[in-house]
Every structure is written in C-alpha cells, then in structure tokens.
Amino acid sequence: MKVSYNKLWKLLIDKGMNKTELMEAVRTSPNTIAKMGKNENISMDVIMRICECLSCDVGDIMEMIPDDEGDTREKK
Questions:
Q1: pLDDT value of position 68
Q2: Which option is the CATH number for 2-65: 3.10.50.40, 1.10.472.10, 1.10.260.40, 3.30.460.10?
Q3: What is the value of pTM for the model shown?
C-alpha cells in the first residue's frame, strides 16, 4: 500500500494556508513536509498534530492507495 497526501494539499488551498505555515503550526521539520510532498510515510504523531491544527480527521488529509504490483491474492 502507498500513501497519498493530495487531500492535505487541497485542504490547505481551501483554508488559504501554505506548507510553511503548516510546518510552523504543527512544529515539524522541512524534511517532514518534503517527505509528504513525495508521498512518503511520516510519523503518526505529526499526522495527529496536522489533524488537530486543521480540525479534521485522518481521512481528510491522506488516503491509502493499493499497490497492485505486489498483490498475490487471487482475484475473483
């Protein structure tokens, strides 16, 4: 499974907030914001702080995308 933070970027636009403002509000590093920009995993603590800052739920800022390449389950 892969993670996508596209919902977060759209939410930031809707709230008129940029990545730097988010970084400062949730007290995280530029490296964490960069990892999110590349859809890489970040700590649950940061995800919780983002949700608290934006008054939203985890599903509002990220989604899991199935990785079909390594899927060995039988398809019906």
A1: 79
A2: 1.10.260.40
A3: 0.84
